[in-house]
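Input (structure):
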């Protein structure tokens, strides 16, 4: 059961409207690493969690907070759009290029959202449920959560430097702080999972004896130069060997004969370059 408290978690009042910045803020709502993503990611992780108690509560507490972050951002977008599109359009038409894009604002916010936020990113691309990670393995999920919060904080930091509005900056300062603590909590939760004996270093901790033991401790050197092997923490420190001259282990990656009904181009004996016609063309190209 969820209850809606009719107060924002933090204030969302810009000093003045800014429809162009409202479009930019859409990334923090419906982008791949926006608040809708972490909201749904944590909700499904919590609902799928098989352990009642501290881990599930941590996930659900954070999920519920993230709903509030979506509300804050949606409120800020609506307030930044106050007076748009009429005022923005009037200003934009002074410049023909800007007029063509309605001053840089997202016209969908006016046409579809009625001057409000949308479940979409800053280019108007709809939010997608495929953005979320909720596997049921808490180690894998918590690591994904750290990455999601890191990317979200990175984008928030970039947007923080794209505005001078003190009201917007104050809200983003709060968001930055919450992204910081969420990264810390997931990192700490990973350590506690391991301390509780629920997970190890590798996710999942199964089939370690079944995997190919020759290839579970090597990094293939596939970049020019020797620099990769200089990373002590992922070589000697982690018990990993840098394989400097790796050789392919499989045969040619030849696709099978196509189904005739699919009309795939096919040469049964040799590739097209090896045919008489192909060789004649190659010779002609050399002569010319």
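Output (sequence):
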């Amino acid at each position: 059961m969820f209850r809606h408290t009719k107060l924002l978690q933090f204030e969302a009042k810009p000093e003045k409207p800014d429809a162009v910045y409202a479009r930019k803020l859409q990334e923090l709502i419906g982008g791949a690493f926006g608040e809708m993503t972490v909201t749904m990611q944590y909700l499904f992780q919590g609902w799928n969690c098989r352990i009642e108690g501290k881990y599930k509560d941590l996930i659900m507490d954070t999920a519920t907070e993230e709903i509030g972050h979506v509300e804050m951002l949606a409120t800020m977008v609506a307030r930044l759009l106050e007076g748009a599109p009429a005022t923005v359009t009037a200003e934009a038409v002074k410049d023909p290029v800007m007029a063509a894009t309605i001053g840089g604002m997202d016209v969908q916010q006016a046409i579809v959202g009625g001057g409000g936020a949308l479940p979409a990113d800053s280019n108007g691309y709809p939010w997608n449920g495929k953005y979320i990670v909720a596997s049921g393995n808490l180690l894998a999920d918590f690591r994904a959560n750290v990455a999601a919060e890191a990317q979200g904080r990175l984008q928030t930091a970039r947007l923080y430097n794209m505005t001078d509005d003190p009201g917007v900056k104050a809200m983003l300062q709060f968001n930055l702080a919450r992204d910081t603590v969420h990264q810390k909590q997931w990192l700490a939760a990973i350590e506690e999972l391991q301390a509780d004996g629920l997970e190890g270093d590798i996710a999942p901790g199964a089939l370690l004896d079944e995997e190919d033991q020759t290839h579970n401790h090597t990094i293939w050197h596939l970049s020019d130069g020797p620099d990769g092997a200089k990373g002590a923490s992922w070589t000697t420190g982690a018990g990993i060997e840098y394989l400097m001259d790796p050789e392919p282990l499989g045969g040619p990656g030849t696709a099978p004969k196509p189904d005739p009904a699919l009309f795939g181009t096919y040469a049964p004996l040799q590739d097209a370059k090896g045919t008489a016609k192909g060789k004649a063309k190659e010779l002609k190209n050399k002569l010319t």
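Notes: The chain has two domains: 19-195, 213-248. The CA atoms of residues 162 and 285 lie 54 Å apart.
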